[in-house]
Amino acid sequence: MTKDPRSLRHVALLVVSVAGLAAGGVLYLSGEREAAWWAWFCATAIVLLSTFVSVASSLLRKEAGVDVIAVLAMAGALLLGEVLAGAIIAVMLTGGGALERFAIARARRELGALLRRAPRVAHRRVGSELLDVDIGDVEVGDVLVVKPGEVVPADGIVGASGAVLDESALTGEARPVELEPGSPVRSGGTNAGAPLELQVTASAEESTFAGIIRLVRAAEESKAPFVRLADRYALGFLAVTLSVAGVAWIASGEAVRALAVLVVATPCPLILAAPAAIIGGVSRAAKHGIIVKGGGPLETLASASALLLDKTGTVTSGRPQVTAVETFGVVSSDELVRLAASLEQASIHPFAPAILAEARSRRVELRFPTGSREKLGTGIAGSVGERRVAVGQLNFVSPGASRTPALRSIQLRTEVEGSSSVFVSIDGALAGALLLQDPVRPDAPRALRSLRSAGIRHIHMVTGDHPGVAELVGDALGVDRVFAERTPEEKVEVVRLMCAEGITAMVGDGINDAPALALADVGIAMGARGATAASEAADVVLTADRLEGLLLATDIARRTRRIALQSVFVGMGLSLVAMGFAAAGAITPIAGAILQEGIDVLVILNALRALVGPRLGPRKTPEMRRLARGLASAHRALRPHIGELVSLAARLDTLPPADAREELERVREMLEKELLPHEREEQRTAYPIVGKMLKHEDPTGPLIRTHQEIQRLVRLYGRLIEQLPADGPRPDDLRDLRRALYGLHAILALHFAQEDELFSLLEA
C-alpha cells in the first residue's frame, strides 16, 4: 500500500530532530562541542525550513496557528547561536504533530478492518457460467445474479423469478419490498429472498449507490473545516508572547532576553498536550468498540448541542418481531404459531426468522413440512402432519375471503401502527394472522434521556419512513421533532438547517444516511450491520449494535476535551509565569528550553489521563448477563399471552358463552401461575442487583409499586371469573371483563417495556 508522502515527510522530520538532538548530546559529552553545535544547528534548520513553508502557506490563507511561535523561536535560536534550545523546540514540534497523526492513523486502521468485510464483487452470468467480476467492471446490459444476503451492485430490471429486497438501508422502510418480474430495482438494497437475476441498466458509476456517494463527497466539501483546539488560542497567545518579548528586548537592549521569552513561550501545552489527550480519548473509545477518525470529530462531538437520529436500524432493531397473534376460529394462538412456524422452516421470506423466533418463545414443538411450495414474495403452502397450511398474503392463503370485522380491524391496525400482517389458513379455512413490527431498541429511551442530561438540548428523528410509523416511534422515544419521508437529498437539507442553529451530530446506519452523515458537524454510523457507505462517510463508527455506544462516545469526548483544556490552560499559565522570569533575565534560552520541557512533562501526564478514566457505566458480571438473558427469555415467552388479552377482549361478544368462559379461565391460569410467579422472582433476583448498579437513580421502587398494582388487577380479574355463571358470561358481564382485560394489557405492556429497558443494562 502506498503511503501518503506528507506522512513520510513528517516521520522523516521527527527522526531528524530526535537524531540531531541525541547526536549533539553524545558529541557534546564526548568533548566534540563544535560538532555537537552543528548537529543541533542542522536538525533545527531542517525542521525550521519545513515548518516555515507550512506556516507561510497557512498565513497566505489568513490562518494563524500555534506553529508561528515555534518558527520564531527556532529562527531566533539559530540567529543568536542558541542551537540546543532550537533543537529541543524542533523535537517538541515534530513530536506533537506525530501524536496527532498517530491518533488519526489508528482510527483509520480500525475502520479499515471494519469496511474490508463489505463485498466488492458482482456475479455476472455468461451463458450457463457465473463469473465473479469487480463491481467497477459491471456494464449496461450485463445479467447479474445476486445471491441471498448480498447487496444489489447496480441499478437494473428484475428477472423472471421476481425478487424480495430489504431496502431499509436506502429508504428507512423496515418492511421487505416485493418486486414483480420486470420491475426496476436500485442498487444498494439487500436480497432478502431467493437468488435473483438482474439485467443492468446503469453501470456502477451511474447507479443509485454511486449517486449517493457523490452526494457524500459534495457534503464533505461543503462542510466547514475543523479548527484545531490548539489553533483557537494561538492568535491571542502569539500576541501576548510577541508583546512580552518586544518589551523585554527594548527594556534590556538584549536580544537574548527576547529569545528566552520565545523559548519558554513555545506553546508546548498547545502543541503537545491537546494531541496527547485526544489520542488518549481515541484509544479509549476504540476499546469500547467506537472508531473515531481523529481528534477533530472527538472535539466536535464534545460540543454537540443537537442530535439527529435515523429510525430503522438506529433507534429500532431493524429486525421484525411478532407483536400479536389474532385467531379467527377454534384454533389456539399457540397452535396457529406452531403450524405457521413449521411451514416457515422451508421459507426464505424475511419474516420467516421472526415467526420461528415466536415459536421458540412459546416453546411449541415444530414439525418439518412436506410438499411445500412457495410463491416468492406472496406466500408458502404445504402440509404439516395431517394439516394443510398456507402462510402469506390474504389473497394467497384465502382467495376471495370476505372482509369480516376481524379482517377490517387487522387492516386498520396495521395501517395505524405501521405493522405488517401475515395470514394463516388451515385446511383451506382462514384461521388467523400474525402481526409483525420493527421494535424500538430497549436501550434507546434510556440512552436518549442520558444524552439530554449530558447536554444535548435538541433530539430529532429524520427518516425515509412513512409519517405515521415515524411519529409513533418518535413518541415512544420522546424526541422533539420527526422529519419523515425524507430522501437522501432532503436529509442533507435537514442537517444543513440544524447545523445553522448549533453543533449537530447525526446518527445513521444506511446508504441513504451517508450524505447527511458527511455534512453533519459530526456523523456517527451504526457500523455493526456493515453499512459501508455510512461508515465511510461518518466521523465516528459504533461497531457494537447498541445505541448506548453513542452515550459512551459522548462521555469520552467530553471528558477528553475537558482534560485537554485543563492541560492547555495550566501549561499556558506556567509558560506565562516563565515568560515573566525570562523577560527579567532570570532564565537563559537553554534553561528556558529545559524548563519548558518540564512543563511539557507535567501537562502531558495530565493529558494522558484521557487514556483511562472512570468506568463508563456499572460493571457487568457473567452472572448478571445470564440473569438478563433469562429474564429476557421469560419476557419473550409471556409477551404473546399479554398480547392475547386485547384479542380476547375484542372477541368476547362473538364467542359462545361456554367458549368464552374457557378462554377467560385459561387467561386467569396464565396470570396466576405464570405471570405473577415471574414478577415475584424478578423482584427477588433482579431488582436488588439493578438497585446496587444504579445507586442514586434506582428506579426499582416504582416498578415494585407496579408489581403490586398488577397483583391487584389479577386478583380483581379472578374475582370476576369466580362470579360468572357456570355456562359462561352473560352480556351484562362483558363490559367489566373487557375493562379488566384492557387494563391488564395496558399496565403489562408498559411494565414489560420499562423492564426491558432496565435489564438491557445488565446485558450490555
From TrEMBL:
Chain segments annotated as transmembrane: 12-30, 37-56, 68-99, 233-252, 258-279, 568-587
Segments forming domain Hemerythrin-like: 631-759
Catalytic activity reported: Zn(2+)(in) + ATP + H2O = Zn(2+)(out) + ADP + phosphate + H(+)
Protein family per UniProt: Belongs to the cation transport ATPase (P-type) (TC 3.A.3) family. Type IB subfamily.
Domain of life: Bacteria
Cell compartment(s), UniProt: Cell membrane; Membrane
Organism: Vulgatibacter incomptus
Keyword Cell membrane among UniProt keywords: yes
InterPro entries reported for this sequence: ATPase_P-typ_cyto_dom_N, ATPase_P-typ_P_site, ATPase_P-typ_TM_dom_sf, ATPase_P-typ_transduc_dom_A_sf, ATPase_P-type_domA, Cation_Transport_ATPase_IB, HAD-like_sf, HAD_sf
Protein name: P-type Zn(2+) transporter
EC number: 7.2.2.12
GO MF, any single term: ATP hydrolysis activity
Domain P-type ATPase A residues, every copy: 118-216
